[in-house]
Every structure is written in C-alpha cells, then in structure tokens.
UniProtKB/TrEMBL annotation:
Residues 15-232 form the GH16 domain. Its EC number is 2.4.1.207. This is Xyloglucan endotransglucosylase/hydrolase. One of its GO terms (cellular component) is apoplast. It is found in: Secreted, Cell wall; Secreted, Extracellular space, Apoplast. The lineage of its organism: Eukaryota, Viridiplantae, Streptophyta, Embryophyta, Tracheophyta. One of its GO terms (biological process) is xyloglucan metabolic process. Catalyzes xyloglucan endohydrolysis (XEH) and/or endotransglycosylation (XET). Cleaves and religates xyloglucan polymers, an essential constituent of the primary cell wall, and thereby participates in cell wall construction of growing tissues. Contains at least one intrachain disulfide bond essential for its enzymatic activity. PROSITE patterns: GH16_2. It comes from the Eukaryota.
C-alpha cells in the first residue's frame, strides 16, 4: 500500500491550496497539480495484458499496448473514498479507429449491479481525424441514465504527454485537462444515489472498442497498425484510502474529513471552463432528446441549447477544431 496516498498529506495540500487562494498568489489547483507522482510498484498492480504492460524509467512510466492478442491494464492497489487522481498520457498515433484508452475510477468489481464510475475515455479515429475525449459519471449502477459528454482538444494528444486529472469530493467531481477545468458535476438532491459515493479504485486500460467507439462501430480496429501503445507517466494518487474489508477510511478524524471538503472552483477556473465547453464540446447528454424526452433534473438548459441537435451532438462540430491554449483561456 502506498503511504503517500493517505489523507494527512492530502490535508496539507488542501490547507496550502486554501492559503494561496486567499492570498491571490495562485489558482487553487496549483498545489494539487504539483503533488508527487508514485512509481508503479508504490501504487499500482497489473490487471491484464501480461507482456503488453511494460515499465520504463524505474517504473515511473507505463506503456499499455493493444494488439490482436490482447489489450492491457492496471489498477491502484488501494481503494479510495474521494481524492485527486492524475496522469500524463500520450495516445497512439496514426490510424486508431476503434481503439479505446481509459483513465477512470470504478468499483464494478465490488458492486456488480450498483457500481459507481468516473471516466476519462479516449476514443480513437481514422487517419486524419482527431481523437475524441469523453467523460462519464455513473452512480449506483446508473449507466442507463448516462451523464456522458464528449469534446475535441486544442492540441494533438498523440504528439506529447498531456495531463488528465479527476478531483472527486463529497460534493463535486471536476475533470481537468492540463490543469484547466473542463467539467464540474455538483452533487444535487435530484441526483440522489446517482452521484458516485462508494469507494473506488483507479484504473488505466487500452482495449478494442470496435463495436461502438468510432461512429457507432462503423470503423473497426485495424491490427495492421498494431501494436497501439498508450503511455502513462506522472501517476498521482492522493486521497482517502479505505479498508477493503469494511470500506472505512484508514485516516481518522479531521484528516478523513478533509477529503470531503475540497472546493477548487475559482472565478478564473470557471471562466476557462466555460470557454472550453463553448468551443470544444461536441456532445452533451443534457441536450440529447433521443435518449431523454426531458433532460435529467440536474441539467440547467439555457440559450446554449440552440447549438445542439436533438441527438445531443453539437451543431458547431466543424468549428470544434484545435486552437491555441490562449484561445481556450
């Protein structure tokens, strides 16, 4: 078990974050973004893929490969109830239709019918078309009432490593790309048990999603271009680890409570997030009238609805191309 992932160190960074926010010297994410990464042996274990998982740089970089034989994946050694989880990821280049790379929290192995899940899913594409990024939030087995969103990016995720982070607290979930908040899910009374609330492990996988990942399965994985290699580095696990037997937090008192009290949404972060979503969102479940006659209760439908088709796809899809970081901000 990785001692670096316990709540006492998390509490320190939470207090530092608060002090910097009050002083105006930095955004609230900065201390979390600078948390120390763990080696593979310190925090993770292999799930599947035998030799398709390879360690580099003394275990600080993990390569997951997909070939015609198998994909690969790993998981955290600990279960967590809230925390900050992050990785720098470089996606496979060239033709990647049907390939799915995932970085996510889940407890599906413990709660088969009532599992929670918080996902980054990276969906490959045919040559010349960009990878798409999808975020999912499922609680208490609510996959039928999905809360999926998809986005383009302002960079090519196959050219270099980029940081993808999930902040999960009792009241909110925030997704970050390169320390820019791209989505915030706030717990509401209307969501009830559909807000993820049970201990989860962190996972990273690469697998064949030919049946659905690229235009509903129109384009399959072409193993002529295998192996497809996804690279993971700067692996961060900072949260409240829990006892796998009774799911009680290992930390006690105020240390455990600190993991439930995070709030990292400054005015600057909210402005950057709104601009990202306006420019790069390509699908929103809140605007999907095919799946939902009425949007889920937590969806606040405003004037932006006119920019979406009944399928939830953006009408501005052709305008969701890459742009400079400055344009996003």
């Amino acid at each position: 078990m990785a001692a670096a992932s316990s709540c006492p160190s998390f509490l320190f960074f939470l207090l530092l974050s608060t002090a910097l926010f009050v002083s105006g010297e930095a955004t609230s994410l900065l201390p979390l973004a600078n948390l120390a990464a763990l080696t593979f042996e310190e925090g993770y274990t292999q799930l599947f893929g035998d030799s398709n998982l390879m360690l580099h740089g003394d275990g600080r970089t993990v390569h997951l490969s997909l070939d015609e034989r198998t994909g690969a994946g790993f998981a955290s050694q600990d279960l967590y109830l809230h925390g900050f989880f992050s990785a720098s990821i470089k996606l496979p280049s060239d033709y990647a239709a049907g390939v799915v790379v995932a970085f996510y929290l889940s407890n599906g192995d413990l709660f088969e019918k009532t599992h929670d899940e918080v996902d980054f899913e990276f969906l490959g594409n045919i040559r010349g078309r960009e990878w798409r990024v999808q975020t999912n939030v499922y609680g208490n087995g609510s996959t039928a009432v999905g809360r999926e969103e998809r986005y383009g990016l302002w960079f090519d995720p196959t050219e270099d490593f980029h940081q993808y982070s999930i902040l999960w607290s009792h009241q909110r979930i925030i997704f970050y790309v390169d320390n820019i908040a791209i989505r915030e899910v706030v717990r509401t009374e209307a969501m009830g048990g559909e807000f993820p609330s049970k201990p989860m492990s962190l996972y990273a996988t690469i697998w064949d999603g030919s049946t659905w990942a690229t235009l509903g399965g129109r384009y399959k994985v072409n193993y002529k271009y295998a192996p497809y290699v996804a690279k993971f580095a700067d692996l961060v696990l900072h949260g409240c680890s829990v006892n796998p037997m009774d799911h009680r937090t290992v930390s006690q008192g105020s240390d455990a409570g600190a993991c439930d009290s995070i709030r990292l949404s400054t005015a600057d972060e909210r402005t950057a997030m709104a601009k990202f979503r306006r420019k790069h969102m390509t699908y929103s479940y809140c605007h999907d009238r095919v799946r939902y006659r009425s949007p889920p209760d937590e969806c606040g439908i405003g004037p932006e609805a006119k920019n979406f088709l009944p399928s939830g796809e953006s009408k501005l899809g052709k305008r969701h191309g890459r742009s400079s970081l400055g344009a996003v901000l």
